[in-house]
Amino acid sequence: MKNPNINIAIKKKLIIVLFVIIFSLIGLSGRIFYIQYFQAEFLQSLAFAQQTRDRLIKPNRGAIYDRNMVGIAVTETVASVSVIYHQIREPERVAQILSQMLDLDYDYVYEKTQRRVALERIKTRVDRDIANQIAQMDLAGVVIDEDIRRIYPFSTLASQVIGFVGRDNQGIIGLEAKFESFLGGQSGRILTETDVIGREIVTGQRTRIPPVDGYSLVTTIDTVVQLYAEQILEKAVEFKGAQRGAIIVMNPATGDILAMAEYPNYDLNDPYTINDEELAAIWDTKQANERSAALQQMWRSKVISDGYEPGSTFKILTAAIAIEEGITSVDNIRRI
Predict the structure, then answer these.
(1) Which of 13, 101, 205, 307 lies 20 to 30 Å from 222, alpha-carbon distance?
(2) 53: which DSSP letter?
């Protein structure tokens, strides 16, 4: 005959196990519900970031024109060359070819091919012809992307007014910086599905989200008038032995600025080369903060930023006060 106490003990254990299973299932169901309805978007974004490679496409920066639609700051289409570590099969050969084609040091390129990152940029602003030659070689792990380069056709024309862009094609100073939100545009993307170590799952299957190009800017500057003003100003400064000078040409009927010339100016295509010969001779001895201050001084528009004596322009106010107080008359002023 079995002991009834043993049956009761077994039943209690079974009930406890059953409750544990039931509560575990309820907890798991609740957790699944929480993940599915409250964390779905967050987890999907993490999975998307892990399973795709996102490469940016730079938009075409808007041009800057003079009043006659002559381009004084334009964009040229170029390319950038990058490598993907997990897709490279022959790193030595890749480094050898890229170093020769892009005129770079072999060790520099090879070091970049060994970096275990999703995408390593080798060189930006590469001419399209060279980029096309590299693309035709079909090197595994080498990626050619669209890129842009800012060109200033007149080099020094209205340099302090126009300003220039940095390596990221964002305006640093002048009109380029002032109207960055209009000129810059919005970047596009190339999305590629990858596995856990960054290799393309389906080679050549990519999603391209096109960029939005920037708006162009039309100024009141007249290129011809600006060129004449700068030539006259340069000769006047040199003749007088002055440190600098400025000329503003304005249409009095409309207020349009036809020219805003300053001398010395600088080359917008090479803005980090100092324009002072004496300072350039000792440039290597200067500290970083001293170089930065000198460049900022060269880039800055003194016409807009600096205070200056009104000179003869103030005579109009003096004459008006004299006439109002009866000290003189219009006829006397005309004779003067």
Answers:
(1) 307
(2) E
Closest CA to 247 of 284, 189, 301: 301
Task: For 11-57, write each residue's pLDDT tens digit.
Answer: 777 888 888 888 888 888 888 888 888 777 777 766 665 556 667 77
- Tokens 């989200």, residue? 209
Could you tell me where the beta strands, DSSP code E, fall in the chain? 52-57, 64-65, 71-83, 120-126, 142-151, 188-193, 206-209, 217-218, 245-250, 257-263
- Report the phi/psi class of residue 53: left, alpha or beta, with left for phi > 0 and alpha for psi in -120 to 50: beta
Distance CA 218, CA 216 (A): 7
Gap between the Cα atoms of 160 and 268, Å rounded: 9
pLDDT tens sequence across 154-163: 999 999 999 9
pTM score of the predicted model: 0.71
Three-state DSSP state, 327: coil
Q: Scanning the structure block, which residue is given the tokens 């009043």?
A: 67
Whether the Cβ atoms of residue 185 and residue 169 lie closer than 8 Å to each other: no
7, 271, 294 from 58: Cα distances, Å: 77, 22, 31
User: 190, 208 in Cβ contact below 8 A?
Assistant: yes
- Token digits of residue 82: 């990058």
Give the burial class of 7: count Cβ atoms within 10 A of its Cβ; 0-12 exposed, 13-18 middle, 19 or more buried.
Answer: exposed
CA–CA dist 237, 249 (Å, integer)? 17
What's the angle, vertex CA 25, arms to CA 32 and CA 45, rounded to 5? Answer: 10
